[in-house]
Structure formats: structure tokens, C-alpha cells
Protein: Aminotransferase-like plant mobile domain-containing protein
Organism: Acorus calamus
Amino acid sequence: MPEINHEGQLVEKICWCFEVDDRFILGGVTYKFTKEEVGLITGLPFYGKALDLQSKKVSDIRLLEKHFPDKHLHRKDVRTKFIQLYPSNEEEDKQDFVRILIILMCVTFLLPNKGYACPNNLVRYLEDLDATWKFSWASVVHQMIIEDLRLFAERIRRRDAREGVSLGYIGGYTAALMVWFYEHTQLRNPSAYGKVPRFFRWGRTNDKSPLVRCSEQFHLLRADQEQGKEDNEEEKQLKEVIQKEEEGKEIKEEEVEGKEEKMQNGEEEENEPDQVVVDS
């Protein structure tokens, strides 16, 4: 794995551009963050069977019963168990070592929540190691990021409304979101070209300027976006003014026509000859 600077502030700024319909707007341009791109960035399959990690049923799962009897997959406990199994020569322990390695990757960077834990139901999909890659792992990584982004976007709106809400934590593999941002904005040059998965193209470099430039250019993207919103608002206000003026003109024209009609009726009354009554 390449070293990559996890720029927390940049991730937060990217999240500011997330809209409720699961798209990003950067510099007035709309971008989608998809499971396919997560697959290309991480090397995880984005096709295959879906994983259901929301199920609360965790009984009768051999791996949990044997290695995690308290039914919790916290990073500290997973790491401890991983180290314990390393010297074992038993065949089952060797296979469990691989399973726990996958869990360790999930609780560390692929699927962690704010407490560095991941859903217990994950272990159901690890019992048959040969079938592990038949599942769409990129989809579940993508889903976790999107769900947290939706919550984050809502917290931003509430904070902007002066409700005193903390922005909190973005769970999941946010480094994939950073790589996605680099690739779409081209504000930073890759440290290596042509490597796959694409995550390996964005390792840490000695040149800090690309990261600084990324942060600086982000403000320009946001400025363009805000200017676009202001322009749209000004255009909307201008249309409202024009519409009101047109409505005002129509009202005035109706008033003028009404006055002219009254004047014409009055003139006709004045021009009518007096009737002469002749006594017989």
C-alpha cells in the first residue's frame, strides 16, 4: 500500500459540495461518485452479489463464536487476535488468519465507523474464502461513504441554520473520495502513472506543493460554485422584477382602457339630444 496524506480538511471541504441527490458540484460542474469508481480506485469488485451488513442476526457464526465471543469487531480486538493467530500451524487457524486479516482491513480503513468497528454480519461472507470475491465489496464501501455524506450534508444545513449542530465524523474509506477528487479535478499530479488499482498512483511525494495547490484551488472551485449560485439568484431576481414590471404594465393598460371606455360613454351621454315633449 502506498503512503497517502489523509487531508481531513480537504475531505470536509469535498463534503460541503455534496448535494442531497448524491452528486457533487465543483466549480459549477456536476460529478457523480459511483461504486464503479470505488472499484477502480481500490481494486475491489464492483459487480457480483450484494452484501447485507445491516442484519442484526449474528448468532451461529463460527468465526465470531470462536474468536470474538463478545460479538464485537473493534479494531483493537481484531488486531490482537490477528497477532495471536500468526504463529499457529493449524489449518483452520491459518484460514482464520486470512479471514481476520480481511476484517482488520475493514475496521482500519475500508468500512470503519467513528469507533473503528465494523458490522458483525461481515463475517458471514468470509466463511467460504473461495467465494469472497464473488461479492460486490466496492458497492458496500461506496454505500457507507454515501450514507455518511448524506448525514454530513444534513448537519451542514442545520449548522448553517444556526441550530448548533456538530459536523461529526465521515465514516468509511474517505481516502477513496480524495483519490476520486484528485482524478476529476486534476489539481494534483499523480506520484506514479499507469499503476492499478488507481489508489497506487497517488502515494505521498516529497513535493508538498501539489497538496497546498489542491487546498488553494479548492477555494477557487468553491468560489466559482458560489458565484454561479449568486448569478443564478441574480438572474432569478431579475426575472421576478421583469415579470412584476410586465404585470404592472398590464394593470396600467387595463386601467387606461377602462378610463377611455368611461370617457367615451360619458361623451355619448352628453351628445344625446334632449327629448321634446309635444302636448297634444
